[in-house]
Amino acid sequence: MITNTKEAEIQEQWTETISPQSNLFDLKLQEVWRYRDLLVMFVRRDFVATYKQTILGPIWHLIQPLLTTIMFLIVFGRIANIPTDGIQPLLFYMSSITIWNYFSACLTGTSNTFVANAGIFGKVYFPRLVMPLSVILSNMVKFAIQFILLMAMMLYYAITEHNIYFSINWLWIPVLIVIMAGMGLGLGIIISSVTTKYRDFTVLIGFGVQLFMYATPVAYPLSYVMARSKHAWIIKANPLTAIVEGFRYALFGTGTFNWSLMGYSIVAMVIFLFFGLILFNRVEKSFMDTV
Amino acid sequence: MSNIVIQVQNLSKQYRLGEIGTGSLAHDVNRWWYRIRGKENPYLKIGEVNDRTVQSDNDYVWALKDINFEVKQGEVLGIIGRNGAGKSTLLKILSKTTAPTTGQIKIKGRIASLLEVGTGFHPELSGRDNIFLNGAILGMTKKEIQKKFDEIVDFAGVERYIDTPVKRYSSGMYVRLAFAVAAHLEPEILIVDEVLAVGDAEFQKKCLGKMKDVSVNEGRTVLFVSHNMTAVKSLCQDIIFLKNGFIEDIGKAEKIINSYIISDGQVVTKREWRQEDYPGDNIARLIKAEIIDESGINLKAIDFSDNFYIEIIYDVLLNGYVVAPNIHLFDKSGEYVFVAIAERSSSSSGIGRYKTRVKIPRNFLNNGRYSIGIACTTLLPHILHFYEKDALEFDIVEDMENRNNFYRGDIPGVIRPELFWETMKIK
Predict the structure, then answer these.
(1) What would the pLDDT profile of B396-407 be if each residue is shown by its tens digit?
(2) CA dist A246 to A175, A221, A249, A267, A271, Å?
(3) ipTM score assigned to the predicted complex
(4) Between chains, do A49 and B93 touch, taking CB under 8 Å as contact?
(5) Does domain B4-15+70-263 fall into CATH 3.40.50.300?
(6) How far does A34 lie from chain B, in Å, by closest CA?
């Protein structure tokens, strides 16, 4: 009996056990929290390092959505003549692009977590999840900058066209951002986990995100598709649809918004995130052998 | 209370060789199928010993197989072995960058590795930013780093450049800064791999000193992997010698280094020739040559501060010749260091078997590898009976702590004789 308790005592002193397989659901989230300083520093590094030795610096964050908006305005607005749910066309495209950019940046940024960071992961251990989380956060900073641009544009139109919309719905915006972040992170880490061994997905993601955008009501409103096509269900089945539509609805008060679509998006996000975390957690232990 | 801080049990690591493609997908599917039926992974059985020189069809090898050892608190454990012996794999598992295939390791306390210094350094960021980033990657909080910041900068000696991007640093400065961050990490267990290969002598000294300091004064545990036997010897009490993924030997530093050097295959400190191969002519021939200590015991590695002897046994087959043995010493690059010929009084004359011993004084040959050619010559008239080049090879190793000066780095030169210094105050 005495030896047993002694043994138990010794057992408890171990602070860590390295073993081949850990519990599937042991996601080590407290550990991620312990490394929060690192998370902040990665975000800072991303931001500082990207614009070292550039003249315009962070202004580049604004040029990209501006040019894309103008392009959309010409192609979808002038040439294709697609209506914009009664929203000022420039604001319609810019708002869609802002939220879509956030998603696509999160997805592409996190989808190569393992491959791009193999060098550093191969040498030092820290919770691997810190890396994709830092991508999500630093893109959030970029999103904020673009959002300020959008606000400025809205203010401009409010003054010149007396077209002011302000409502309690704005409180939805942060919620939508979080859902979008979760979606990008979940899908991204699923892809990054799979690509450690089979690189096929890296090829797919290159043009996949582009195609995905056309299946999401970014350049057109959902109402337009529903009115004209029998295949609108495809667009509705896309869990991003409700978020992009919801974002515009929250900002401008027009568009398609319903609870069942939103609920569907949230459920999809939770599923992606859940499976993503489990897969990521499994792969991170030995991806160095296959990457 | 047990003071074991690392316990490694039945640790094994299997690697798959070859490319990953459709073939590995088939294996994955097969493995998954076995798991569903509750069977063991079929590929675990077929691994081979990791001997890279042998060609094999088998795709799976064991980089480590059934490793068991324990490390006590405050111990400096050396890990040696040839390339491919599994040292790096072991360290990778310990530092959690890859998981073992079977077995487990239990650890007490925070573990930090210097597998390669400067991990996560971003070339565009300043030295200051990189200290914080690197420190955080290694597991420090911002507060901890702030507290140590001045000490780190001071240790690295880069005050002037602290706000310059590290891509402008010289490689020496870069390594110094990186090591400084890691050295101030204060983990309970520190893993060091070959970092001492870089940096100048002064900095190497600093590093060795810091490691010693960390283990002796602060009671921390260090795992040290290196090819530099001198550094290993002066730092480690115990050593693990890995060979092809197995523990070949484990024990006290001196003993293991000796057996490592023997198995290295190149050092020959004892040679006996077979009767039909005796080098020599019809007057004298060589039977045996050996490097020994004072009491006649064969030495595998020679300590810088110990005397050692070269003993040769040879036959003289004819009367009337005064045969003088001589030794020819070369350094590892093949340069002649010296030739020494036996004095008249210790030459041999007359038929018989002779044993000649020559003492090489301590504090004379510098650290490194040497080879000895052995010859026997009659001087009047001049006849060379035999000359066996590279008859013996040996290493001089040094425990730097025994030095009577403060310098702990490598000292260049082939010889390092003990000179007699005198300093007096004259004013």
Answers:
(1) 888 777 777 777
(2) 10, 11, 5, 16, 20
(3) 0.79
(4) no
(5) yes
(6) 8
